[in-house]
Amino acid sequence: MLSNTKKPEPLAAQAAVEQKTASKAEKPVEVSKAAEPKAEKSAASAKTEKAAAVAAAKAEKAAAAAKAKAEKAAAAAKAKAEKTTVRKRTVGARKTAAPEVKLYVQYQGKQISQEEAVEAVKAAWTGETIKTLELYVKPEDGAVYYVINGSETGKVTF
Prior knowledge:
Order of helices and strands: HEEHEEE
Helix content: 55-70%
Mean pLDDT: 75
Low-confidence stretches: 27-31
Strand content: 15-25%
Number of helices: 2
C-alpha cells in the first residue's frame, strides 16, 4: 500500500534548491553589469542621433540649393521669354514707310519728272490693264521708252 506521507528529500536535491535561490540573489548583480553596456549603447545612440541630425541638415541644404537652382532657371526662362517679346516689338518698330521719291531728268534745257513720264505712257497706252511698268529715259533722243507687263514696249517723246 501506498502511504500519503512525504519522504524526506535527499541532500543533493536540497543543495540544488539552495543554488537556485543563490543564483536568484546574484541576478541583480548581473543586471547591473548588463546596465553598463546599455550606457555605452545610449552614448552610441546619441552619436547616431547627432549623425542623423547632421545628415538631415545636409539634406535640407541640398533641397534649398535645388530649390534655388530651379527658381533661378525659371527666372532665366521668364527673362528669355520677355527678351523674345521685346525683340518682336523691335522688329515691328523697325518697319518704316517707303520714302517719297521724286525723280527729275534734265538734259539740254529739257526736264521731265517721273509723274509726267508715267502719265504720258498711260495716255499713249490703249491695251490691257497695266500691272507692271518699267521706264527708260533717254535724254539724247528726248524720249521715254517703256515696257508694260514685261512684254509690251513703246516710246513717248517729251
